[in-house]
Amino acid sequence: MNPLLNIRPYLKLVDVVVEVVEARLPASSRCPGIEEFSGGKGLVRVLNKADLALPPATREWLEYYKELGITAVAVDARQGRGLGGLRAVLDQMSARKRERLRRQGRQGPLRAVVVGIPNVGKSSLINRLVGRAATRTGDRPGITRGPQWVRPGDGWELLDTPGVFAPAHRKGRTGALLTALGCLPEETMRPEEAVEELLGALREHNLFVVDKAYGLKGNEPPEVVLEAVGRRRGLILPGGGVDVERAASFLLREFRRGALGKATLERPGEGGSPETG
Ligand SMILES: Nc1nc2c(ncn2[C@@H]2O[C@H](COP(=O)(O)OP(=O)(O)OP(=O)(O)O)[C@@H](O)[C@H]2O)c(=O)[nH]1
Ligand SMILES: [Mg+2]
Questions:
Q1: Ligand lying nearest the CA atom of residue 24
Q2: How many CB atoms neighbour CB 97 within 10 A?
Q3: Which of 41-50, 164-173, 200-209 is least confident?
């Protein structure tokens, strides 16, 4: 089933579709079928959590989208960075309708729906745009339960929606990385498995943030890394061995919130996911 079906009834009400993706994983965190879904509406892609991604990689993505004629902006919804650019895009995309309304002597409203996979910061972005905690946010997937209009009274009405994902999001490395980033529930995969894929993806991009944080060379197998994490963090089983599962969960949480440093896990042109080349 198309995961966007529940949102479709709202589409005819809106002027712009805002697709939020993870700046650390811009291609694999995309919303499946969004182009067809948004039809003739304006569509803007927001690379959120840009504070946790590598700035040169984010610039590379934005350049790449520009070449493809895709409207995209990078933001940090937590700190409110990059919102000016997004507002400008929203204004531009709604200019024609505003002009029509003006000719009719009316003021609005203009409406946007915010969609994306879970936990990418859709609700946080809305809260930043309206300047108050209008919708609930949280550091796990599935916080927003149903569509919710936010009406700040500035002429815009924003629709927050629950995160959606497709079967492809759960598969292989994509599934592991989305679990590592907190976009899929932790139960999706054993944390040790997610750590293995995360380490692989980081090292392939010459990112040794985990290895450095735990004083390791950049080529130790995941078991050695988790042993180091468990010992350092005191995650020890009664028999004296490391609690590997807890060490893996701990490491994933550290990475997710950016405690190990910035990282971008895919670059344009790498292949494997749509729009990576
Ligand atoms: N560092 C950082 N954290 C962010 C940013 N935006 C959101 N977050 C955090 O990411 C987590 C998820 O944010 P939400 O706004 O609840 O995400 P959502 O997409 O609405 O999630 P669902 O409703 O579950 O689909 C929260 O812990 C936010 O504080 C950002 O730009 N940078
Ligand atoms: Mg939400």
A1: 1
A2: 15
A3: 164-173
Total domains in the fold of the chain = 2
Confidence of residue 46 (pLDDT cuts 50, 70, 90): very high
**Beta strands per DSSP E along the chain:** 16-22, 42-48, 72-74, 110-116, 148-150, 156-160
CA atoms within 13 A on the CB side of 271: 0
> Which ligand is the nearest neighbour of the Cα of 48?
1
Is it the case that residue 88 has pLDDT exceeding 50? yes
Are residues 68 and 144 part of one domain?
yes
> Residue 150's domain spans which residues?
8-165
Are 18 and 155 within one domain?
Answer: yes
d(CA 170, CA 212): 29
Question: Could you tell which of 76, 120, 124 is best to mutate to test the pocket of ligand 1, judged by most ligand atoms within 8 Å of the CB?
Answer: 124
